[in-house]
Design goal:
The structure is a single chain. The chain is built from 16 helices and three strands. It is mainly alpha-helical and 380 residues long. The protein has two domains: 24-221 and 330-354, Citrate Synthase, domain 1, CATH 1.10.580.10; 227-325, Cytochrome P450-Terp, domain 2 (Cytochrome p450-Terp, domain 2, Orthogonal Bundle). A three-stranded antiparallel sheet has the order 1-2-3. A hairpin with a 2-residue loop joins strand 2 (32-35) and strand 3. Helix 9 (193-203) packs antiparallel against helix 10 (208-219). The chain is globular, with a radius of gyration of 22 Å. The relative contact order is 0.15. The structure holds coenzyme A. Coenzyme A binds at residues 12, 223, 227, 252, 257-264, 311, 314-316.
Length: 380
């Protein structure tokens, strides 16, 4: 056991490189993010979620006809089987992430190409899950509210369809554009915990449905995808800008964490947060509701001294306020993150399959050995 003393433990796999990737690059020092070599700012300002999904999954930007083709394909593949709708109805009391995880796992049962593990088929499965996921999330919200799910509308974009299926009205163009941008900004992000999870599942030569289902399970936690909901909970607890300083002081002195702050990789401002901050401000002005932006802004000011420790706003800090201003229920904030991340998971699962190695690290055993086995009747 003495050799254990020489083992260097990398708790949380901090700063460990698992493999090489061409999917995304996070420049954590300079606060930059690239998908397939394209700066996130350019994609957020010029692209659509459909185009970014193509980019991530196929590795290059589509030309006009390729974009047209993927857009039409997605428009024609948003419906989910009635069996899945019935399943959602039967578990509608669960958290939306539990419902999404279960429903996506169940979609596998309705995929005729489940056993085809070619690259083309895997990529198509990932795109199919991407396409159907908003239908699942919105059907759940409506069913639990005692309403009928709304069928997707072929003429609408992915982002517009999400709002349309949620609220039952054709969304305002600016609101839909904002959701589109938000989905783009959440689509991919290096070896975050859920992409790692999806890769681990893929590394055992499992299938795309299993890997994405596992990714969703991982994303659910508040240290990962659940932070946007946590941010709004904290903003609601603060209630008024004048309470922010004491709230932050009390929380931090009791060892708590401010949701939407800190990141394993960025030690400077998260570039996605910088974009979303402007959007949150514009949206709160457009909706005539400055309260949440004001509270979050005051929270950000209180946290300024922590910037030098590398604790800055992350992507989730402003998204909660944006969703709230769009009247989106708090408990589906993390589901929206999941909807957006499916193309990123798909890209990384495909990358893992294409150069596979079983991901199987080690644990250093620190327990006792050769303990005497005492028969149950003699145990205290
Ligand atoms: C995201 C997160 C899990 C990254 O954690 P990490 O890289 O493992 O960093 P650590 O948990 O080791 O934290 C490092 C230090 O920063 C502090 N810290 C990190 N995030 C903090 C936060 N949000 N609020 C207050 N302090 C924070 C820790 O307390 C720790 O301080 P210490 O060294 O004095 O003990 C962490 O920042 C966090 O919990 N953030 C809040 C949840 C969140 O917003 N998640 C969304 C991520 S996109």
């Amino acid at each position: 056991m003495n050799e254990l003393n020489d083992i260097k433990i990398h708790r949380g796999l901090k700063e460990i490189y698992l493999d090489r990737t061409k999917s995304s690059f996070i420049d954590g020092k300079n606060g930059k993010l690239y998908y397939r070599g394209f700066n996130i700012n350019e994609l957020a300002n010029n692209s659509t979620f459909e185009e970014v999904s193509y980019l991530l999954i196929h590795g290059k930007l589509p030309n006009k006809s390729q974009l047209n083709e993927i857009t039409i394909w997605m428009a024609n593949n948003r419906d989910i089987p009635i069996e899945v709708i019935n399943l959602i109805d039967s578990i509608k009391h669960l958290h939306p992430m539990d419902v999404l995880r279960t429903a996506i796992s169940t979609l596998a049962a309705f995929d005729d190409s489940l056993d085809d593990d070619s690259i083309d088929s895997n990529v198509k499965k990932g795109l199919s899950i991407t396409t159907k996921a908003p239908t699942i999330v919105t059907a759940h919200v409506r069913l639990r509210d005692g309403k009928d799910p709304i069928s997707p509308e072929k003429s609408l974009s992915h982002a517009s369809n999400f709002l349309y299926m949620l609220f039952g009205v054709i969304p305002d163009e600016l609101d839909a554009k904002l959701i589109d941008k938000d989905l783009i900004l959440h689509a991919e992000h290096g070896l975050n915990a859920s992409s790692f999870t999806a890769r681990v599942v893929a590394s055992t030569q499992s299938d795309v449905y299993s890997a994405i289902t596992a990714g969703i399970a991982c994303l659910k936690g508040p240290a990962h995808g659940g932070a946007a909901e946590g941010v709004m909970k904290q903003a609601q607890e603060i209630g008024d800008e004048k309470n922010t300083t004491s709230y932050v002081k009390n929380l931090l002195s009791s060892g708590g964490r401010i949701m939407g702050f800190g990141h394993r990789v960025y030690k400077t401002a998260d570039p996605r947060a910088l974009i979303l901050k402007i959007d949150a401000k514009n949206l709160s002005e457009r909706k005539g509701n400055p309260k949440w932006f004001g509270i979050l802004q005051s929270l950000a000011v209180c946290m300024e001294p922590y910037e030098k420790k590398g604790i800055c706003e992350n992507v989730d800090f402003w998204t909660g306020a944006i969703y709230n201003l769009l009247d989106i229920p708090d408990d589906i904030f993390v589901s929206i993150f999941a909807l957006a991340r499916i193309p990123g998971w798909t890209a990384q699962i495909a990358e893992q399959f294409s150069n596979n190695i079983l991901i199987r690290p080690l644990l250093a055993y620190v327990g006792e050995l050769d303990k005497p086995y005492i028969k149950i009747e003699h145990r205290k």
